[in-house]
């Protein structure tokens, strides 16, 4: 039986943005499950509750000893971490991989909050990405679930010019890293294309199988 992976998209995106990664992971022998979350006008907590509801349905069709892996791009990774902090289905979660996730908050969201406050009042997901609001989620790292992160270091987007330090055009590498990671790697891709790369799928496969990123 193929292992199941729930793929969580990022801010202001839909499930179709994860279709290429789904295809690539299915080529590696997994079953990808796409979800649509309201990651534009709702706070992160709202999407987490929806994801938990989805998981409650998926686990009805798996064996007692089977677990579900989670992979999230950008904000989707924060949804995963918040879920791990709050869920009652922790024993059904396998390994998790976060791709270009602003684990320490988004510097661009901080800039938007200080210069365009009306934007963060309307775009509540963007407000959730501000550094102080990510901290307020009190994300736990002692849940026993192995997590790895993949960052991009190709600054190929206009907004990346406003960021300090190495970044993928949207998120700083230093924001992707946090102490609770089992493994970490950076790839020469930008924020909008890193999850479209077959190399990314290969690294996810490596971590899910071996608990580390094997450099291929």
UniProtKB/TrEMBL annotation:
Species of the source: Tepidibacter hydrothermalis
Lineage: Bacteria, Bacillati, Bacillota, Clostridia, Peptostreptococcales
Pfam families: Abhydrolase_1
Keywords: Hydrolase
Domain of life (superkingdom): Bacteria
Statement: the UniProt record of this protein carries the keyword Hydrolase: yes
Location of the AB hydrolase-1 domain: 5-117
Signal peptide location: none
Protein's UniProt name: Alpha/beta fold hydrolase
GO MF term list: hydrolase activity
